[in-house]
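Sequence only, no structure available. Ideas?
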Amino acid sequence: MGKNLFPILSGNIIKIVFILVGASIPFLGVSYFVFPLSFTKGFAISLVMAYLDIYVALFGIKKALAFASEPHKGLATFHKYTFFRVVNIAVMFFLLSKVLRLKDYASGLCVGFLLIHILLFIYLVLITRSKGSVEKGE
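Reply:
I predicted one. Tokens follow.
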């Protein structure tokens, strides 16, 4: 696999998020026709939450990579953004469950958030395979 097969795999953070949006739209369409409306609404809300989470995670990684010569500073930066992600998601789930009382949407919230992270994992595996930086057995 080369750059011809995946021309935008090495793009910036916004491109990665848009790839994930495009990959999740078919799942959202299927959920609209297969599952109850409350599931689909929760699923759509969690997709937006997951896009924000992925953006923050990738932005933190990008900031941490700037300290490649000083690994301790890079790791501290990465941990700062990881803490921000955890607080951000906790606040969003709290607001959705307690303030907006979206108890019927809970299953859709969890499934959508999990789906985006699985799609990101698949995307990252494709990037490493296409770049040839990961060999079998490593």
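The longest helix spans residues 37-65.
Hope that gets you unstuck.
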